[in-house]
Amino acid sequence: MKKIFWFVQQAQALGGTEMVTSSIISFLSSDYDITMVLTAKKPQKMVYALPENVKVKSLDFPIETVQMDKYMGELKKDHHYFKMFSLGLKGIWNTFIKRFYVRHKIKKMTTKEDILIASSFDNYILMPRGRLVYFHYHFNAKTFFSFGDFWMRRLMRKPNYYIFLTEETMQAFLKKRPRWKDRVYYIYNPSRFDRELHEDVHKPIRFIFVGRLAKQKNPMLMLESLDIVKKKKIPFELQIFGEGVLKDKMEQYVHEKGLDDCISFCGTSSHVEEYLKNADLLLVTSFYEGFPLNIIEASSLSCYTLSTNWGDAVKEVIEEGKNGSIIDSFQTEKYAEALIHFITSETLSEKKRKCYESAKRFEKDTIKEKWMNLLENSSF
Predict the structure, then answer these.
(1) How far apart, in whole angstroms, are the C-alpha atoms of residue 310 and residue 291?
(2) What is d(CA 262, CA 255) in angstroms, rounded to the nearest whole number?
(3) pLDDT tens-digit profile of 258-289?
(4) What confidence category does residue 329 fall into, taking pLDDT thresholds of 50, 70 and 90?
């Protein structure tokens, strides 16, 4: 049985990359000997359930150095500038000094016959030479070729294989790196949930938002658009699932605009599927995404999506008119107009049925087959 060492940032808080990775590990664990390797210290209680045969190890990095952007934001918000400087020094130490020691540790942990899969930059930078390494890249082509990502990759060894989330991202990569054509693949993220058909439409209409309350997700566009909808005296309900640096600003906006009676902040939930089943429309307002898990999971549970045009793969994830609609604008008025059109549509039940049909391409069995084909036919 092949051994796989799957490197993950952390396992103490809900995150899209970690959710996807734990799902893939779970359905591959019956065919491979898998060890999940955490960059951060292993928490007393993992937030992701794994099969009993999956082993878990840790590289013991402090969580604040692994999720530096998050902790830097919190320190800046509270004006702890000395602590920000200290945390920055720790990050530099880990990136330029400690990584060499950790690479040696990983090399001793593994053999040349094993497969190493990195799921984020903080663990990809630790990959040793002389090992078969995949980089499962969780963002889009624009981010991949950005200035920051380019210079990060200059510090690292090249992987043996890249795995992108969409064909569009893979093709954008190959236009600039054609020599990689035999070592680049794309595999969609799987939905964690089995498909379920729910055709009932609620009154008032039920919206749902699932994601970090951060600049990338652009949630203020959603609130500003819904303010327009309410001023037109169109009833609706919105549940917001997620936490982030924008939460205080969003709560203040909702209160000031008198939206408290129709918008609820629900924090995070490990059972968000129950709420998706009972929603009519998922709201996505992101500036950019790699492969939004919330869209494919909403589709699996018959929940249509209204999304901004967040990147090169949006038309792969969303089949226009089947599992969602795309708004080619970040203007509040355009998003509000699309919301009103959806609310007043007479074909909502049909839209929900088409969601269910569209989601078949994201089922676990379909994605598992693609992963196994890749893993069984790879070599140095």
Answers:
(1) 10
(2) 11
(3) 999 999 999 988 789 999 999 999 999 999 88
(4) very high
Whole-prediction pTM value? 0.84
CB 246 within 8 A of CB 219: yes
| Cα–Cα distance for residue pair 39/147, rounded to 1 Å | 24
- Domain chopping of the chain, boundaries: 3-190+364-376, 205-362
Q: Mean pLDDT across the stretch 140-148? A: 87
Residue pLDDT, tens place only, 154-174: 888 999 999 999 999 999 999
> Which pLDDT score is estimated for 85?
92
Q: Inform me whether the pLDDT recorded for 356 exceeds 80.
A: yes
Query: Which residue in 204, 205, 176, 172 sits closest to 186, CA to CA?
Result: 172
pLDDT per residue over 221-272, tens digit each?
A: 999 999 999 999 999 999 999 999 899 999 999 999 999 999 999 998 878 9
Distance, in Å, from the CA atom of 116 to the CA atom of 109, rounded to the nearest integer, reads 11
Q: Give the CATH superfamily of 3-190+364-376.
A: Glycogen Phosphorylase B; (3.40.50.2000)
Three-state secondary structure readout of the chain: CCEEEEEECCCCCCCHHHHHHHHHHHHHCCCCEEEEEEEECCCCCCCCCCCCCCEEEEEEECHHHHCHHHHHHHHHHCCCHHHHHHHHHHHHHHHHHHHHHHHHHHHHHCCCCCEEEECCHHHHCCCCCCCEEEEECCCCHHHHCCHHHHHHHHCCCCCCEEEECCHHHHHHHHHHCHHHCCCEEECCCCCCCCCCCCCCCCCCEEEEEECCCCHHHCHHHHHHHHHHHHHCCCCEEEEEECCCCCHHHHHHHHHHCCCCCCEEECCCCCCHHHHHHCCCEEEECCCCCCCCHHHHHHHHCCCEEEEECCCCCHHHHCCECCCEEEECCCCHHHHHHHHHHHHCCCCHHHHHHHHHHHHHHHCHHHHHHHHHHHHHCCCC
For domain 205-362, the CATH superfamily is: Glycogen Phosphorylase B; (3.40.50.2000)
